[in-house]
């Protein structure tokens, strides 16, 4: 586990573009710091260290960065992983100021037991994090929401249900669902099968009724012959 209060030491780099594959083969990850409209700072650090930091800090926890004697307060804005090997390829930091509000992505934590799961229903997770605005010191490591509200089919919790600390503004739409109670695939399949069976029975009953009506409307036997003679 990374100690996020401890300064993260990065090394400045001059290698760019084609030379980056060589850095990665040595276990280093290239990164860049965007610095308030000034020239970006190209840096690097061991992959394992940056992976651990990203897992702990995400895109919401301010980090103290040291590059030689220079110090920066930053947020991780992006971390690119190789989609096949899942190796960290590149990190983008954004320099921030302690007295200025910043936007960040904060993870959502559903707290408590979820009653719907106990009766065999499934929870469809639709949102894992929200966009917030706050001073760096007020950025939360996570936002909680009460999972006990998910009790019956179609129950849902939304961004409006989040517990938001003072000094934090939620930028994500308040009506955006976080999680919704739905049926499992097995339950849906069973209901579809029952519906198809009921529809088949209705079709069969309707067919029998139609045949009965057709039979009643046709004269048969002697009655039919008598009717023909009378007509002639």
Write the layout of secondary structure elements.
Layout: E1 8-9, E2 11-12, H1 20-25, E3 28-34, E4 41-46, H2 47-57, E5 63-67, E6 70-81, E7 88-95, E8 102-111, H3 115-118, E9 122-125, E10 129-134, E11 143-146, E12 156-158, E13 169-170, E14 177-182, H4 185-217, H5 221-231
Parallel strand pairs: 1-5, 3-7, 8-11
Antiparallel strand pairs: 2-4, 3-4, 5-6, 6-7, 8-10, 9-14, 10-13, 12-14
Spatial shape: elongated
The number of helices is 5
Within the largest sheet, what's the order of strands?
1-5-6-7-3-4-2
Unreliable stretches, pLDDT < 50, 5 or more residues? none
Helix fraction, binned, reads 25-40%
- Most strands sheet: 7 strands, mixed
Care to describe what's here?
The chain contains five helices and 14 strands. The chain has 232 residues and is α+β, with helices and mostly antiparallel strands. The chain folds into two domains: 8-96, Beta Barrel (Ribosomal Protein L25, Chain P), CATH 2.40.240; 104-182, Ribosomal protein L25, C-terminal domain (RNA Polymerase Alpha Subunit, Chain A, domain 2), CATH 2.170.120.20. The strands form three sheets. A seven-stranded mixed beta sheet has the order 1-5-6-7-3-4-2. The chain has a four-stranded mixed beta sheet with strand order 11-8-10-13, with no helix packed on it. The model has no long low-confidence stretch (mean pLDDT 86).
Briefly summarize what is shown:
With 232 residues, the protein is an alpha+beta fold.
Task: List its traits.
RNA Polymerase Alpha Subunit, Chain A, domain 2, 232 residues, elongated, Ribosomal Protein L25, Chain P, 2 domains, 5 helices, alpha+beta
């Amino acid at each position: 586990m990374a100690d996020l209060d401890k300064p993260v030491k990065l090394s400045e780099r001059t290698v760019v573009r084609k030379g980056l594959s060589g850095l990665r083969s040595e276990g280093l990850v290239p990164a860049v710091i965007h610095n308030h409209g000034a020239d970006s700072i190209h840096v690097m650090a061991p992959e394992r260290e940056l992976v651990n930091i990203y897992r702990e800090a995400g895109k919401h926890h301010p980090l103290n960065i040291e590059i030689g004697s220079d110090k920066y307060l930053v947020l991780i804005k992006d971390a690119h992983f190789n989609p096949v090997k899942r190796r960290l390829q590149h990190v983008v930091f954004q320099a921030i100021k302690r007295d200025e509000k910043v936007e960040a992505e904060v993870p959502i934590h559903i707290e408590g037991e979820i009653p719907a799961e106990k009766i065999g229903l499934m929870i469809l997770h639709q949102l894992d994090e929200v966009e917030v605005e706050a001073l760096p010191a007020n950025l939360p490591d996570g936002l909680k929401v009460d999972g006990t509200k998910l009790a019956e089919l179609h129950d849902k919790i939304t961004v409006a249900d989040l517990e938001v600390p003072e000094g934090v503004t939620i930028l994500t739409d308040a009506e955006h669902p976080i999680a919704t109670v739905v049926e499992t695939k097995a339950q849906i399949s069973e209901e579809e099968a029952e519906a198809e069976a009921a529809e088949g029975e209705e079709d069969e009953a309707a067919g029998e009724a139609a045949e009965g009506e057709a039979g009643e409307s046709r004269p048969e036997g002697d009655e039919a012959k008598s009717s023909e003679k009378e007509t002639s």
